[in-house]
Amino acid sequence: MPVIAFANSKGGSGKTTSALLLACALADTKPTTIIDADPRHPISTWAQMPGKPDRLDVVTNQSEKTILDEIEAAATKDPFVIIDLEGTASRLMSYAISQADLVIIPLKEQQQDALAALDVIQEIHRDMKATRRQIPYAVLFTQSRAAVKSRTARHIAAQFKENPKIDTFDVEIHERDAFAAIFSIGGSVSQLDPKKVNGLNKAHENVEGFRNEVIHKLRALTSKNEGRAVA
Amino acid sequence: MTDQDRQALSIPDFEEPSDALDDFAPRPKEGQGTKVEAKAIDAVSSFPSREAPPDGQLNLKGPRPILERFKAMCKADRRAYYDMLEILMDAYEGKR
After folding, report:
1. Quick check: B46 contacting A, CB < 8 Å?
2. pLDDT (tens digit, 9 = 90+) per residue, A126-146?
3. Which residues contact B87 (CB under 8 A, 6 or more apart)?
4. I need a labelling partner for A39 at 20 to 30 A (CA). Which of A61, A71, A77, B17 fits?
5. B26 contacts on A by Cβ (under 8 Å)
6. Quick one: chain A helix, strand, coil %, rounded to 5?
7. How do residues A49-96 score in pLDDT, each as one tens digit?
8. From the CA of A154, how many Å to the nearest CA of chain B?
9. Which ranges in A32-169 belong to alpha helices (H)?
10. Is the Cβ of A55 closer than 8 Å to some Cβ of chain B?
11. Cβ contact (<8 Å) for B40 and A130?
12. What pLDDT sits at residue A145?
């Protein structure tokens, strides 16, 4: 059921990497479709390399006019649909957001990414009016340092984390060799060779933590919609 | 009596069940509806379309009699220039 869109109107915010990490992690357990709606088609290019998980389907978006049908087709086929969007404020992004059960807004802890994320949040609220339903969203900090953060990074992150109206992920996607390596080697993080990629255990933990928090958020949303207590 | 005198509980090493995510399933097929939603989004979105419009334009320069002949053909058959151009191309390629 869940359609999860990764949206930030600024390029280089970590959308594609975090979307692919989640898609591969979910595909370990359940059939998952990832829709590559970035015109550069980075995930479609990745899918041509060896190692794509068997349960992961990659759909290359054709155009703004086809995105709604592509999402509907994927959502009625697989339990999980991930949409990787272009880093541009576009109508295609608005259409994808309108179909999402959860919008994940990846951002680097930098002013430019943060401002673009706020633009996307405003657009999500406009989409909520149009669709007359809640569209849950959460900010995900990406490419962050696992150890010491800069003062700017702390300043940016704190403003999101301390805002009661904006949900944020506890997990952050750290800057790791493994996350870059999957785009040059192919496959998922769990398939990488620890002799060839540094810090693989930490990368694996990072992905698992991200996947688990997404699942927890989705279950909490389902419980909320059904009027049950959140587990 | 000390704690060592009391018999310890034999608590097994509980194996955590793996999460099969069986509570997630594909959406039921509802069909239709997406066009209405697209219109609704168009009405409120501040994000513009980034796609090139489907229509383009072609300027033709050539001998005036040929251009006039082409325009007269279109007018006689009450067809747009592009429409007649497609008919002529199809004829040239042997499709008609």
Report:
1. yes
2. 999 999 999 999 999 999 987
3. B79, B96
4. A77
5. 1, 75-79
6. 45, 15, 35
7. 999 999 999 999 999 999 999 999 999 999 999 999 999 999 999 999
8. 30
9. 42-47, 67-75, 91-98, 111-131, 151-161
10. no
11. yes
12. 86
